[in-house]
Design brief:
By secondary structure, the protein is of the alpha/beta class. It contains 24 helices and 23 strands. The longest helix has about 50 residues, at about 35-85.
């Protein structure tokens, strides 16, 4: 490395001033010689004498001055070094490899190392690696947050060029110096973060508590004891909230407004909202246990925004079947509870109201488009056919958006192939987008997640959107829907549409093939009326039977071929019993047109094994892993599938995984089950 120390700037000008003056005298001497040669000769002698004295003094004084400058710089550097050494701000210098070369006392006190510690900074702070330091790539500064021995620091790193250090001295030329150092500063922000967390913990959160089955629970209690049941529930709720220094105000017979601190919400999360289970213990002879839903909003910019978050959260909780708590923030939505079965509503008043609202919406438009989810099943297509019939009955042009007829619904689609009336019933995605307009209503059935609809972009082209679904709502929902009818307790969307059909028009007539299609949707989603089947399910099936549905004809539609039946039997026979209660298997039906359907059927079959609480069947299809999850009543498979990126019902759920193989997917499933069992989430 070449190193040359030279004087520069004003100090060099001051020392060489006598030489510059001698040069000026030489110029004057030339002018004098032109005027008078004798005078010029005299001046020349004087200049020679001047140069002799000046150069002698220059060469004699230069070393003395350099020594004085070096002595001053040394003393000045010692003062600076002492000031840096005693500076309260922890400070250190690193070489270009991240090795400590100098530290001050404050830095040494933090790292508990003596003066002269020369190891890599990574040995002290593992998060500060070599690649995170400023380098020659143009990054001159960097800033990170880290925790060290319980304290929280902001680390600032600044690149210092050695050449610039020399030139900035105004006395020494840094030409020839290469390399750089890194200055490291530690700012202790522990107290600041504690104060910010304390302020954040004291911020207010807004909660809403609704009684899910208020009317149904009271119906099973003697009239004279109803007030006692209500009083016990009020006492339970108020006592629970007041124990956390919160305020609970009853807004209606089955609604409460709750105000609490944010740190209380964290405590409620740790206890997984024990109130959900405590309320169920209130029993004075009521046949049905009372369940509640809780919605909490926090971290909003204003109290009004927190209140709006709480309203959205309680809507999500109710839309997912109730008996659970939902916490909504600007960044996330968290779910707790939801382990119990949904309570079937005995009254169909809501179905009648929704039917009237749907009729008003359809009659105000010129065209109706009906859309289900991707890879539609019998329930999705059957519900679409029901809405199609409603639109035709009300005198509106209608189409079902279906881009591809998959084998799962091919038998039901073929029911309409021979009739000229249904020639334009089904259209593709592009045609639907081209025909959609401001006077078109889009009815979405059997799905409430926009990303998995048959044509997600179609939602942008239709200003009026109606959602009819029986799946529990998640964080992703179709926004700004004109009408949303989501009932998780319903067995199928075909059941909901069958009820709407009875109220939409007096003595409405549906064709036998339409009745068969809707009846098959109920039959498939209930696994031949064995899963999620209530009184209203049979009432809907009876209506369809009166309308011409033939049970034998429907059964023939969904008979399996020998190859599919063998694949399902193979998946059942190879099932692994995990943790005594979970059956996990793989469906290897690669040569079948719809292996995911076979996997779902195998999952249903595994529930027939004694002691099995939940079953999972994995299918590798078109580069993705499809997981079908089923349970009877003890395990909420929807929570498990939601944790893995899917969703569904308490008893029927699924998810899709990309970029992994079967072995990795099984491992991820087992880890999820283990984690949720350990935390008591299932």
């Amino acid at each position: 490395m070449k190193k040359r120390i030279k004087l520069k700037g004003r100090i060099r000008t001051f020392i060489q001033f006598g030489i510059y003056l001698g040069v000026l005298l030489c110029v004057v001497d030339v002018a004098v010689c032109v005027i008078d040669l004798r005078a010029g000769a005299f001046l020349t002698g004087y200049i020679l004498f001047y140069f002799a004295i000046t150069l002698s003094l220059y060469f004699y004084n230069k070393p003395v001055i350099m020594n004085e400058l070096i002595s001053f710089a040394t003393e000045y550097g010692q003062v600076q070094r002492r000031l840096l050494r005693e500076l309260d701000l922890p400070y250190a210098l690193l070489d270009d490899n991240g090795k400590l070369i100098w530290t001050n006392a404050a830095f040494e006190n933090i790292i508990h190392q003596p003066k002269g510690y020369k190891k890599s900074i990574t040995s002290l702070f593992p998060t500060i690696t070599r690649d995170r330091l400023p380098d020659d790539s143009g990054v001159d500064e960097a800033q990170y947050e880290m925790e060290y021995e319980g304290n929280e620091y902001v680390v600032k790193l600044r690149k210092i060029s050695l050449k610039d250090m020399m030139e900035d001295s105004d006395m020494i030329d840094g030409e020839g110096y290469q390399g750089y150092l890194t200055a490291m500063y530690l700012y202790d922000e522990t107290a600041l973060h504690i104060a910010l967390r304390e302020v954040d913990d004291q911020s207010l959160a807004v909660g809403m508590i609704y009684l899910d089955n208020y009317d149904e629970a009271l119906d099973g209690v003697e009239e004279v004891r109803r007030s006692l049941l209500i009083a016990l529930i009020d006492r339970k709720v108020n006592k629970y909230i007041s124990a956390f220094d919160g305020i609970c105000k009853k807004l209606d017979k089955d609604k409460y407004l709750v105000i609490m601190r944010k740190r209380v919400v964290a405590q409620l999360q740790e206890s997984r909202f024990e109130l959900l289970e405590d309320v169920k213990t209130v029993n004075i002879g009521n046949e049905m246990a009372v369940t509640i839903s809780i919605g909490v909003g926090l971290d909003g910019l204003t109290y009004a925004q927190n209140y709006e978050f709480s309203r959205n959260a309680i809507d999500l909780a109710l839309g997912r079947g109730g008996d659970q708590a939902v916490i909504k923030t600007p960044e996330s939505i968290t779910y707790y509870g939801g382990k119990s079965q949904q309570v079937e509503k005995n009254t169909r008043v809501k179905a009648r109201v929704k039917a009237q609202a749907l009729r008003e919406i359809i009659t105000s438009k010129d065209q109706v488009l009906v859309m289900g989810h991707r890879m539609p099943d019998a329930d999705s297509f059957g519900a679409a056919v029901g809405i199609y019939r409603i639109a035709l009955t009300l005198g509106r042009k209608a189409h079902i958006v279906l881009n591809e007829v998959i084998p799962a619904i091919q038998p039901t689609v073929e029911l309409f192939g021979s009739s000229q009336e249904y020639s334009d019933m089904i259209i593709g995605n592009q045609q639907a987008i081209e025909t959609a307009g401001s006077n078109t209503v889009l009815v979405v059935v059997d799905v409430n997640k926009p990303s998995i609809t048959e044509c997600p972009s179609l939602l942008k082209f239709c200003k009026s959107v109606v959602v009819l679904d029986h799946h529990r709502q998640g964080s992703e929902t179709i926004e700004n829907a004109t009408l949303s009818y989501v009932e998780p307790y319903a067995s199928s969307t075909c059941e909901m549409v069958s009820e709407i059909l009875q109220y939409i028009y007096d003595n409405i007539r549906i064709r036998p093939e339409e009745a068969d299609c809707m009846y098959s949707g109920i039959m498939i989603d209930t696994n031949n009326f064995m899963i999620k089947t209530g009184v209203r399910t049979f009432e809907a099936a009876a209506f369809l039977r009166r309308s011409g549905a033939d049970v034998t004809r429907v059964r023939k539609l969904f008979r399996e071929d020998a190859q599919g039946y063998k694949a399902k039997a193979d998946a059942v026979s190879q099932a692994e019993i995990y943790k005594q209660f979970f059956a996990i298997s793989v469906c290897t039906a690669d040569d079948l047109p719809s292996p995911t359907i076979i996997g779902a059927q195998a999952a249903n079959e595994l529930l027939n094994i004694r002691g099995i609480k939940a079953s999972f069947v994995l299918t590798d299809y078109q580069g993705q892993i499809y997981i079908s999850a089923r349970s009877i009543d003890e395990v909420n498979v929807q929570l498990i599938m939601e944790r893995m990126g899917g969703g569904g019902h308490l008893n029927t759920a699924a998810c899709q995984m990309e970029g992994v193989g079967i072995i990795e997917a099984i491992g991820a499933l087992k880890r999820t089950v283990d984690s949720m069992l350990e935390n008591g989430e299932i």
